[in-house]
Amino acid sequence: MSKTMKQLFAPANKDLRGRILFTMAILTIFILGCSIRVPGTENVTSNLGFLELLNSMGGGAFKKFSIFALGVTPYITASIFMQLAEMEIIPYLSDLAKQGHTGRQKLNRITRYVGIALAFIEGYAFAFAFYGKSGTPFEYLYISTVLTAGTAFLLWLGDQISEKGIGNGISLIIMAGILATLPDMFITAFQSLVTFGNVQETTFGIVKFILFVVVYLAILIGVIFIQESERRVPIQYANKSSSTYKDNTSYMPIKINTANVIPVIFASSLLSIPSILSAVINKEGFTLFVQKYLNYSTPVGFIIYVAFIFLFSYFYTFIQMKPDEFAKNLQESGGYIPGIRPGKDTEKYLSKILSRITVLGALFLVVIAGLPIIFSKVTDLPTSVSIGGTGLLIVVGVALETYKQLEGSLVARNYKKGYTRR
């Protein structure tokens, strides 16, 4: 990493430093916007509950009911549904996915329209949930319009980062929102754990806080390790002229957590739907049913939450990897896995490997997603203080991806520089 930093501050990479500063400026605008409340909602207070994840991903914007309260979550949800719809569910979208760059541009445009539509629907539902029946239709429409505009503006900011900055703009906005809540979380943890009374109580509280920080860092290191872990499947190509096995062999890396954070977000989104509906419908019986069976802080809801994560982990992993298509492309290119016959045998072999690895990946997601829930049950700390969680997984994934992109850009520049000198 030190070598990368030295290269970054070299005079020849001034434009790259400019892109980084531009990215930081855009993220600063996002953080400042998280503090601007929706006009006319100054007296609205909220008990987040199941919406704590949405609040953390938006830099605390939802709790403040700011113009960025919805964040980019509607767009993320739309992206997931679009990826599922492309898998031969909607023929038109499937055809676009096969049309290369042009089709991908159209799909991105459709995804944004769907995301904006979802933002308006969610904004209207949340406006109704916060105001209850005391608001007027105009107030609901006004709030939902402001929240939708906030999401649209964030998507535009994300595009600016992707084009003129460094990294994926949408991902960096989510990461910035999560990081913005960390100082408050550690301050709250310190205030809750450390009581300034006699020396013994104060010392014991400081030890507990230090232990909290150490456990948090240990989980962070574990997340980085799992995110970078992969299974390498050896591949040989019959048409290569090299005679040595090493030179004739390449590898297909399969990450343990191929699905990344998508299964957790999708599971959280599904479980949040009944809660939103209960707030809108406002029927006591339905609300009690949701709180008892469809809230992941209850035993039944937690089991359903875990089952959803496992299900979506398998589903999304096999959608991403597609063993049948990989086996077909490998055979057409003259490649094969040593000891495995091309065609159906290769497909079965890859499916078997994916199934085993996905078990580990899904277990990892369940542990990370379940830690905050269990932590809140066994401790008396506020719900804003947690260990692990989806936010940590998102931050690690985005940070690693951005660093690799930055490192790759520096390597490419050095390669071009050396090639020009030749």
How would you characterize the overall build of this protein?
The protein is mainly alpha-helical. It contains 16 helices and 3 strands. The chain is globular and about 70 Å long. It has helices at residues 2-8, 14-33, 52-57, 61-64, 73-85, 91-97, 100-131, 137-164, 169-193, 199-228, 262-281, 284-293, 299-321, 323-332, 344-378, 390-421, and strands at residues 230-237, 249-255, 335-336. Helix content is 72%, strand content 4%. Strands 2-1-3 form a 3-stranded antiparallel beta sheet. Helix 13 runs antiparallel to helix 15 (344-378).
Question: What is shown here, in short?
Answer:
The chain is mainly alpha-helical. Helices cover 72% and strands 4% of the residues.
Topology record:
Blueprint: H1 2-8, H2 14-33, H3 52-57, H4 61-64, H5 73-85, H6 91-97, H7 100-131, H8 137-164, H9 169-193, H10 199-228, E1 230-237, E2 249-255, H11 262-281, H12 284-293, H13 299-321, H14 323-332, E3 335-336, H15 344-378, H16 390-421
Antiparallel strand pairs: 1-2, 1-3
Helix pairs in contact: 2-8, 2-9, 5-7, 6-7, 7-8, 7-11, 8-9, 9-10, 9-16, 10-16, 11-12, 11-13, 13-15, 14-15
Run of helices and strands: HHHHHHHHHHEEHHHHEHH
State the low-pLDDT regions, or none.
none
The helix tally amounts to 16
**Gyration radius over CA:** 24 Å
Helix content: over 70%
Largest sheet: 3 strands, antiparallel
- Mass-distribution shape: globular
**How far apart are the termini?**
28 Å
Helix vs. strand class:
mainly alpha
Reading side by side through the largest sheet, how are the strands ordered?
A: 2-1-3
Average pLDDT level: 79
Strand proportion:
under 5%
- The total count of strands amounts to 3
